[in-house]
Design brief:
2 copies of one chain form a homodimer. With 601 residues, the first copy, chain A, is of the alpha+beta class. The first copy, chain A, has a domain of 122 residues. Helix content of chain A is 55%, strand content 11%. Chain A has 18 helices and 12 strands. In chain A, the strands form 3 sheets. A 5-stranded mixed barrel of chain A has the order 4-5-12-7-6. Chain A starts with 7 loop residues before the first helix and ends in a 15-residue tail after the last helix. Chains A and B meet through helix 9, helix 10, helix 11, helix 12 and helix 17 of A and helix 9, helix 10, helix 11, helix 12 and helix 17 of B. Chains A, B: This is Acyl-CoA dehydrogenase.
């Protein structure tokens, strides 16, 4: 078992040196905090991760939840972890004081998510609870808040997001779960939901589903979907809780993240499931979408966390495992074997992992920072932050997920045959991370969101704002001779994106949306590489300035030089991939749009 | 469970129409065969695959071998399968009549491997037995042949390749298992082997290890390694078999291919393990290497087979699963949802899978054909075939493995959330295929073999021969107006490879081997794309000619048009990746060679 699963040094570098998290405390809402309280929260999460999570990484995977006699049993440590997270205030870290939270920035609460998911992503329970509770605090009545939020934030109750139905996976307009008004203002719920993470288990005393359903007579499509609180046990109005007729119909057995049950739930088997409307009727989807950015940061963080844990396992192994001699010393059979980190190919794989994982984390903290500003700032600052966040969101969800899958694959490869065995954690992490390009909107859907909505909204203002931000970093980098070539390269990459858009946008203008979006996934990939290149240049600028002004020594010097080196790696190995992507994206040949004449696939 | 796991139509197309397998029967050695006997063998393998293998795909995965009281128990169907394969003559398909085989070309026996691995790769037993028996028939004494080969080919005994040791994974020069001569000409064996696939199990009556060991006093390094037959039960000279002190120390639990036990074996715990020298002392490694091409074709085939099975599962699902509306019809909420195959992004993923899997199979059959010619032809024809095969081998092993991993990942993605569950076979196939870039020399090692040995051997004659072969295909394609642009593109790609080599070879000439090979894996990737582009153009030429001359209708027309369409897909989506790879490979910046000054990774 790898002993290191994330780098607190790197987290501090990004939070404090690159993104200057403390600047957020200038806003009233965050003014109770400072750098020290931020670090205390991180330390508190690390303690829980070290003691209650990481030691059970394998165990939680090996003992997957089973449904027996209608009851789902999960690993006993889950209850301890939920309780500890609640007691440390970490489930409510991002909630306002008014709602019993710590009123911390998303930047900090997403770091908590990063740490605990790096420790043991099979214990992915509290992020779901936070998300569900946040829907109630944002849109629910005072009664709903009072009835549900305190127990959720305490970790005694579990929250879920109950969107997906068997016939409506990615297509929420086809949701059919029904809600029939009752005289007391509540609703009778009937329907089925699938893939509900933590949708039932015995580590919480109650399960609170934030569920999409359609009120009888509601308009078709997404405009007729409402949001409900549907508890497993509902209050009977006399201080007791009664069974709410939410049946666990099945638990999916999965390739990874086995610690979290993905439930198939049936509401209303006995015509006795009650739901409580959150906010206004037919506003379910807009409500969900307002939470989507937070949820997608969460998935991106989970992916970045898993790939980080795999990277440190691979790095540790590569430093310790002797195998063969260096390529220029092949004939020295008397010399001892060299640690595999000294083979260029292994070093390339490790640098790839470092570039992907630390680049992803940087992008996610950038997104979290924008989220915070969009929440607490005012006027143009708020609006611009929101636009930028909206644009970056599909990338911040997909890049860590898609590239994380590849990164963990390289972690497995670093171990050779051992990587395929259960003796080391990487095979599990390889299985675990594969869900992240699917959760919360697949990569294909993120790509359509980016190219189909975010690029063009408000007359293309969001990419303008982004390019202005990137240009600031380019200007800073250009003042250092050794960073200037990379700044210039990034300028070229921005032009490349503009050229690609110039060749695609006419299709959108002509209403040929299918054609416009046919290679959207490749555009997302291209855009992701450039955005992460920007994050690396940003890190390199800070590292360079620190080396120049503070002259750090030893490990610290090596840390900063490693940042610059990895930035170079990213530009020399990852950025050239944009060439082929741009060629394809500008290519007029259409090969994926279905025609009358069907081909044999 | 997907009902289709490979396409016999495609196999026949490649075997008979593209590679004209029957032409091999002009050689004396294969003259007993014709197209009909080839097809009978394929049908026979299909029957076993359909009845004894595919139905147990999940079961074999769910019930992984366990070591209890020194005995490894495997799924009971394995014994039936071994027996059926032996009785059908499929374990000995490629062996000479003299050795009790069917004297079939590798082209055909590798198709057998493809079919059975597509059906259930967790039953990967007989390929190992063939490989072990082949070492005995090629280099062993008549006594060894008589004592071991018949039972191996009958499927009653299991063969293994016992190379890897705990301290010597990829570095065979560091093998330490010892062999001490005994007065009767046999050897006492002492040591440990790890990752020995099928290294012990109860579905065979005896396990025959083809084991590398070092005779006392042998030279250091690879020049002192000898090959031995080390049985689990050895003949006592009086017609009985006695325990040979080969202890099953452990069974690795693995992420995938769970049906095959990967054993940790200890020889000589009681100082009573006897081995029998195969061929001459100190020739173990050359012997193994002569079998290596066959073994690597086998791994490539396994990868192509797994990704093919995943592709057909995804294709079937995409045709049946309705979800959302086409992008130009988003507002038609009254219309039914469309099958996801009609979404361009899903179609792109499926075409990618088809392009990778059928391109890989084509390349592997090309390699098998060259193998056959190199075995039975004479003079220059033989020599050229051998050189070409040697050059293509690292690609034919790595491309199907590396790209197969990506292809199966896209199969998972096609299923969305369901792909992550055990309800469909793709999650298992995703786990299974991950070992193939590690087996029989990791991708990094294949890359060093390609760039470090194969490109430069005999003054670069092998790439010259390859380029001449590719040029023939280019010339054929150029006669068709609609294929000519792709022929021209392939010419450009050949130039690109030459440019890359021109920039790299000076390092080799200056003895800077580490520098020369530092990005060898990227060169292998580049080379693989171009070689598979050639295979696709080859297929497209045949499809085009058939469409022109035979005017096929219905499904047949659609089959051939699908081939041309997929060729185009490969050139428009995969080939542009060479641009970025070439930029990196010609880039003078070195970032992966270890220097005095250590960086923080």
């Amino acid at each position: 078992m790898a002993t290191t699963y994330f780098s607190k040094r790197n987290l501090h570098f990004l939070l404090h040196e690159v993104f200057k998290a403390e600047e957020l405390t200038k806003y009233d809402y965050f003014s109770a905090h400072d750098r020290e309280t931020f670090n205390l929260v991180i330390d508190s999460a690390t303690y829980i991760a070290d003691t209650l999570m990481h030691p059970y990484l394998k165990e939680v995977d090996r003992n997957q939840p089973e449904l027996k006699n209608g009851q789902v049993t999960v690993h006993p440590k889950i209850r301890e972890y939920l309780k500890a997270m609640g007691e440390a205030g970490l489930i409510g870290a991002g909630f306002s004081f008014e709602h019993g939270g710590q009123q911390l920035p998303e930047m900090i609460s997403s770091c908590v998510g990063f740490i605990i998911m790096a420790a043991n992503n099979g214990m992915m329970y509290t992020g779901l609870t936070s998300g569900a509770a946040h829907l109630i605090t944002s849109f629910g009545s005072p009664e709903l808040n009072e009835a549900y939020v305190p127990n959720l934030l305490a970790g005694t109750w579990q929250g879920t997001m109950a969107l997906t139905e068997p016939q409506a996976g990615s297509s929420l307009s086809d949701v059919t779960t029904s809600a029939t008004p009752l005289p007391d203002g509540s609703y009778k719920i009937q329907g089925q939901k699938v893939f509900i993470s933590a949708g039932d288990h015995d580590a919480a005393e109650n399960i609170i589903h934030l569920m999409l359903a359609r009120i009888d007579g509601a308009p078709k499509g997404t405009k007729g979907i409402s949001l409900f609180v549907v508890p497993k046990y509902r209050p009977d109005g006399q201080g007791n809780f009664v069974d709410n007729d939410v049946t666990s119909t099945g638990v999916y057995h999965k390739m990874g993240q086995k610690g979290v049950p993905a439930m198939h739930l049936t509401m209303g088997s006995n015509d006795n499931t009650i739901g409580y409307l959150v906010g206004q009727p037919h506003q379910g989807l807009p409500y969900m979408f307002q939470m989507m950015n937070e949820a997608r940061i969460g998935v991106g963080m989970t992916a970045a966390a898993i790939s980080t844990a795999a990277y440190y396992a691979a790095l540790e192994y590569a430093k310790e495992r002797p195998q063969s001699r260096r390529l220029n010393q092949k004939n020295l059979l008397d010399s001892p074997q060299t640690p595999i980190i000294n083979h260029p190919d292994v070093r390339r794989m490790l640098l790839f992992q470092k570039a992907v994982t630390e680049g992803s984390l940087s992008l996610l903290l950038e997104a979290a920072r924008l989220y915070d500003i969009s929440e607490v700032a005012e006027g143009e600052e708020k609006e611009n932050a929101f636009l930028l966040l909206d644009l970056l969101m599909p990338v911040a969800k997909s890049y860590p997920s898609e590239m994380g899958v590849q990164s963990v694959s390289q972690s497995v490869q670093t171990f050779g045959g051992y990587g395929f065995t259960e003796d080391f954690p990487v095979e599990q992490l390889y299985r675990d991370i594969r869900i992240t390009p699917i959760y919360e909107g697949t990569t294909g859907i993120q790509a359509q969101d980016l190219l189909g909505r975010k690029i063009t909204m408000k007359g293309g203002k969001a990419p303008q704002l982004l390019f202005a931000e990137i240009s600031k970093t380019i200007a800073e980098a250009s003042t250092h001779d050794d960073l200037k070539p990379y700044a210039d390269q990034l300028t070229t990459e921005l032009k490349r994106i503009q050229e690609v858009l110039a060749s695609l946008l006419p299709f959108a203008q002509q209403g040929e949306i299918e054609r416009y979006l046919s290679d959207a996934t490749l555009f997302l990939e291209l855009f992701g590489i450039v955005v992460v290149a920007w994050q690396w240049l940003k890190q390199a600028v800070v590292a360079k300035q620190t080396l120049l002004t503070q002259n750090p020594q030893g490990d610290e010097q090596s840390f900063y030089e490693g940042k610059i080196h990895t930035m170079k790696f990213f530009f020399h190995y990852e950025v050239p991939k944009t060439l082929g992507l741009a060629v394809r994206l500008k290519d007029p040949e259409v090969l994926t749009i279905v025609t009358e004449k069907e081909l044999a696939l």
